[in-house]
Amino acid sequence: MTRPIPGGPGAAFALALLFIASPALAGTVQGTAAYRERMMLPPDAVFEAQLQDISRAGAPATVLGRARLDPAGQPPFRFEIAYDDAAVKPGSRYAVRATVTHRGQLLFTTDRIYPVLDGRNAPLELLLVSARRAPPAASPGGLGALPASFEGELPGAGGPIRWHVDLHPEGRFQLRETHLGRPAPNQFDDIGRWSREAESGRVVLRGGREAPIFLMPVEGGAALRKLDLDGKPIESAQNDRLQRQREFTPIEPRLFLTGMFVYLADAANIVLCADRRSVPVAMEADFKTLEAAYLGARTKPGERLLVSVEGLLAPRPSMEAGQPPRTTLVVERFVGVWPGQRCGPMPTAEAPRPKP
User: Fold this and answer.
1) CA 2 to CA 6: how far, in whole Å?
2) Gyration radius of the chain over CA positions
3) Which conformational region is residue 276 in: left (phi greater than 0), alpha (psi within -120 to 50 degrees), or beta?
4) Cis amide prior to 325 (ω within 30 degrees)
């Protein structure tokens, strides 16, 4: 039996107008988020995912919807963001950003753009990265607090070489060798992964060189001792140490790079083969050449292809509201695209190296 609406026909008409005037949240974005660190979150940590309009370069993103887990619980975090279909405009760019906070302090955050509302229907899988520097007690091998920069002037076959090493807590390194007294080009950069040997305590850098570089933390992490090619101490009266700098002063590496590149929805990204880091690609310098080659070689939208470039890794403004500048690849010269290949064995192009 149908019950009459209280108040008669006038009330029914007013109720219908109320429904018409109310915004219709007809769309949802679903996904999960997790981090790789093995740690338990505090019981009162909070997870939040936001759907953002990031169409205007250099302008703060507009939040169209959000999902909040309070308390967050433990990963993976499952979320569903409701949004108003009417707020989605053709030609605009949308992305999801997520954070985990504890009493107002940021613990984890996404560090790349996750595009949505671009025709893809698969649920999102967000990777959260730590927003905090590792404390001294958590640093391996007595390295002290990371990230950190180490510098020193070491002897070389053709004269002194100034070494600069940046160590990041997630296992990435950056290296610059400047051959003093030589004409330009006398500066050579490298990036890659570092690890610590459990038995010897040595820190091993593996990057674009054929042989690894061995360093030994000394003085409680106040310095790194340069070892020989076999990982043994160098028997010499000359300096063999890189001193920790008072502040983290990372270099902006300029070098030959390969990586898995994708260009979709006016956003470009590359996962670097050298250290498996995901970074945005700036749409400047020789980007147009890279873009044209990629679009001509891909077989479907969103496909990642192996590319090689000469480029600069330098800070650029983040496209996410309220975020600091991000390390970005600036393509100074496009070299090639290699369809069907991935990071690993591939056609190589040697970056110039100093002669002994």
Assistant:
1) 12
2) 26
3) left
4) no
Token pair, residue 351, equals 């970056």
* Structural element, H or E, at residue 261: strand 254-264
pLDDT in tens, the chain (356 residues): 444 444 444 444 444 443 344 445 578 999 999 998 878 899 999 999 999 887 764 456 788 999 999 999 999 999 999 999 888 888 888 889 899 998 888 888 887 778 888 776 667 899 988 865 433 333 444 788 889 999 999 888 778 899 999 999 989 999 999 999 888 889 999 999 999 988 888 999 999 877 899 999 988 889 999 999 899 988 777 888 999 998 999 999 999 999 999 998 888 999 999 999 999 999 999 999 999 999 999 999 999 999 999 999 999 887 766 677 889 999 999 999 999 998 874 333 333 333 33
| Backbone phi, psi, residue 330, to 5° | -105, 115
Of 289, 253, 257, the residue nearest 270 (C-alpha): 257
Give the E-state strand segments of 54-86 in sequence order.
62-69, 77-83
Q: Looking at this protein, which amino acid is placed at residue 55?
A: S
Find out whether 285 and 112 touch, Cβ atoms under 8 Å: no
Q: Is the peptide bond before 76 cis (omega within 30 degrees of 0)?
A: yes
Q: How far apart are CA 141 and CA 38, in angstroms?
A: 19
Query: What pairs with residue 261 in β-bridges?
Result: 270, 305
User: What is the arrangement of strands in the sheet containing 305-316, beginning at the earlier edge strand?
Assistant: 278-280, 267-272, 254-264, 305-316, 326-338
pTM of the model: 0.58
Distance from C-alpha of 111 to C-alpha of 118, rounded to nearest angstrom: 20
CA atoms within 13 A on the CB side of 241: 10
Residue closest to 194 by CA, chosen among 160, 219, 223, 217 = 217
**Strand, helix or coil at 293?**
helix
Q: How far is CA 163 from CA 115, 214, 225, 331, in A?
A: 39, 13, 12, 25
Pairwise CA distance, residues 113 & 95, whole Å: 6
Which residue carries 């025709």 as its tokens?
119
Q: What's the rounded Cα separation, in Å, for the pair 215 and 290?
A: 37
Residue 332 forms beta bridges with which residues?
none
- Six token digits for residue 183: 């004409």
